[in-house]
TrEMBL record:
Pfam families: CRAL_TRIO, CRAL_TRIO_N. It comes from Apis mellifera. CDD domains: SEC14. PANTHER family: ALPHA-TOCOPHEROL TRANSFER PROTEIN-RELATED (PTHR10174), SD01558P (PTHR10174:SF234). The gene is 107964020. This is Alpha-tocopherol transfer protein isoform X1.
Length: 365
């Protein structure tokens, strides 16, 4: 991305004032994060890069999509052989390693007593081990951070009714295509320019994000491969920039890096402007070098984006060939699957009584 002089151009004076204020506040957060990293025995762990720094699966389809990959569903079964091979190669995952580290992690949680997870079963704990490449100490730190994040931010975790958050989809602020990238990763798309901060707060976007993440991490292959994020910043204004305080930035980084069991494979920034410079100045000090290498700036150049994600796996508005799916349709469809509704209840989400009645005893068992 071209360098900008913050004192030049339209809005330069405003940018300088805002950036100065936000950087002072961000400095305190950064110092605290570094102190925590030292206590944990190292810096932020964003996953072991492969030999080329950006691991990829082999795409045997030549970029062409599967004919049935637009079905709204989660892949809750065992991963395919190529994903299993990837896990063995990149994460060091084998049956023996899983068996040993699951017990070690469970024992460590009990012995150290730093957190009290809602669950301790293998299906729950394995996602933390996969995110940290089966390093038990780092997986333990991740689950502690995950639990602490929930306790520290009850406003985005408690009394949440996912089926009543359709306005996020109506405004096209957040969407999740039913199809994946050519390498099998889920995509989350944010269009912050469509969000009116006067209509609802940034906490509502966090709620929607966490719901999507909690559902997405149910997929074993998502636990292994991680996900890709697209931030389409067309239409953002200073009204949006003012909402991105250092505290909000810290929450975003926590979800992407240190407090949720899902690896961020890549972040693609589209249609950035000088307003984005203000926002990014808050985030950048909180990102270590490895995370910064996962961020790609494309502006309005869709050919640049296509070097990372094939057009066969992108919406039409980004030079792709596919349709999109509103957020509410994603949630509506998944609410009809007993296993997923059971997971939502275990996470503390409020599910309408009529849905529980329709799904019957399968949910309550």
């Amino acid at each position: 991305m071209p360098q900008r002089n913050e004192s030049d151009g339209i809005g330069g004076g405003v940018v300088a004032a805002v950036v100065g204020r936000l950087r002072d506040e961000a400095r305190e957060i950064l110092l605290e994060r570094r102190r925590s990293a030292v206590e944990d025995g190292g810096g932020i762990d964003v996953g072991k890069p492969s030999r080329d720094g950006m691991p990829e699966l082999k795409d045997d389809r030549g970029g062409e999509p599967l004919v049935d990959d637009e079905e709204v569903c989660l892949d809750l079964g065992e991963p395919s052989q190529d994903v299993i091979d990837y896990a063995r190669r990149e994460l060091g995952e084998t049956d023996d390693v899983k068996c040993r580290t699951l017990q070690e992690l469970r024992d460590m949680i009990y012995e150290r007593g730093e957190c009290l997870p809602r669950r301790m079963d293998d299906d729950f704990l394995i996602r933390f081990l996969r995110t940290r490449n089966f390093n038990v100490n780092r997986a333990h730190r991740l689950i502690v951070n995950y639990c602490n994040f929930k306790e520290e931010h009850p406003e985005i975790h408690q009394d949440i009714r996912p089926l009543e958050m359709k306005y996020i989809g109506d405004d096209d602020v957040v969407s999740v295509p039913p199809y994946r990238t050519q390498c099998g990763r889920r995509i989350m798309i944010y269009r912050l320019g469509n969000w009116d901060p006067r209509k609802y707060s940034v906490e509502e976007i966090f709620k929607a994000t966490i719901i999507i993440l909690e559902l997405g991490v149910l997929e074993p292959r998502a636990q292994i491969l991680g996900g890709t994020v697209i931030f389409d910043l067309e239409g953002i204004t200073m009204a949006h920039a003012w909402t991105i305080t250092p505290q909000v930035a810290n929450m975003v980084i926590a979800l992407m890096v240190s407090a949720f069991p899902m690896k961020t494979h890549a972040i693609h920034i589209l249609h950035q402007s000088w307003v984005f410079d203000v926002m990014f100045s808050v985030f950048k000090p909180l990102l270590d070098a490895r995370m910064q290498k996962k961020i790609f700036f494309h502006g309005g150049n869709m050919d640049s984006l296509h070097k990372h994600i094939s057009p066969f796996h992108l919406p039409k508005r980004y030079g792709g060939t596919r349709e999109e799916l509103p957020y509410y349709k994603w949630i509506d469809n998944l609410s009809k699957v007993p296993q997923i509704v059971k997971e939502m209840k275990q996470l503390g989400y409020i599910v309408p009584e009529e849905i529980l009645q329709q799904l019957g005893q399968l949910i309550e068992d």
